[in-house]
User: Fold ABM domain-containing protein from Chaetomium thermophilum.
Amino acid sequence: MAPVVVFQTLAYTGPDQLSASLVDQIKQQDGFKRAFFGPKIEDRTKGVLATEWSSTAAALAYRSSNLVASDEQLAIELASPGLSEPYGQTLDAPCTELFTAYGIEDVFVENTGKFLGLIKETEGFLGAQFGEAVGRGEGEERAARVVIGWRQKEDHDRSKADAESAIMKNIGLIRQGRKAGDLFHVEFKQL
Assistant:
């Protein structure tokens, strides 16, 4: 079964802002697998807590528990479409790119798998996962998240600046079938 990850955006005050007792409480929840926390590289006043769960039910139970107050929460069942090998390093990479697409259509889901398969040879690429949000409220638009592990943010930046890179040649695939998108990078550390 694909991992289910709850991503929570919080105000960031430092790497030790989550107390040991709170981290222990999270780890004691049914279905907990592992957790990562770190600042957004583009906005160091914000941090992201990513908790991995053994099932969708466990992830949604944690999300509704409100153990950690957050500005935004998104539960995603992650898979590795377009990649023949396991997903590699993503949350545990030195730099993790998080791209969230809102108002998605089926074509976005199909194209994202193709896109990830086409960029896997990019310098600094360590792995990728993708999944659609689960447990969304009635009337909420479909959302999805792409999670890409990079050796460093500069590798991603360099590939975006090169018109001949696999990313730039194929970026049109993930510009279709979505209404909006948000991209940032995180320096996660495992808790």
User: Anything to note?
Assistant: The beta strands are 4-11, 32-39, 46-53, 72-77, 95-102, 125-132, 143-150, 180-186, 189-190. The helical segments are 20-27, 56-65, 106-119, 153-161, 166-170.
